[in-house]
Amino acid sequence: MLRNVKTYYRPTRIEEAVILAQSSPNAVYLGGGAWTVAQGSTQLETVVDLQSLPLNEIKGELEGIQIGATATLQGIIDHPDTCAFADGILAQAAMYTQSRNLREQGTLGGTLIVAGPADPLTTVLLVLDSEVHYLDPALHKVPFTSFVAYRDRLINTRVLVTQVYIKRPKRRHAAAFEVVGRSPKDKPIVCAAAYITVEEGLPAEICIAVGGADARPARLHKMEHLLKRQLLTEEKVVQALTVGLTQLTPFDDFRGSAEYRLAMAEVLVRRAVLGAWERARRA
Ligand SMILES: Cc1cc2nc3c(=O)[nH]c(=O)nc-3n(C[C@H](O)[C@H](O)[C@H](O)COP(=O)(O)OP(=O)(O)OC[C@H]3O[C@@H](n4cnc5c(N)ncnc54)[C@H](O)[C@@H]3O)c2cc1C
Question: Which fold has domain 172-282?
Answer without folding.
Answer: Enolase-like; domain 1 (3.30.390)
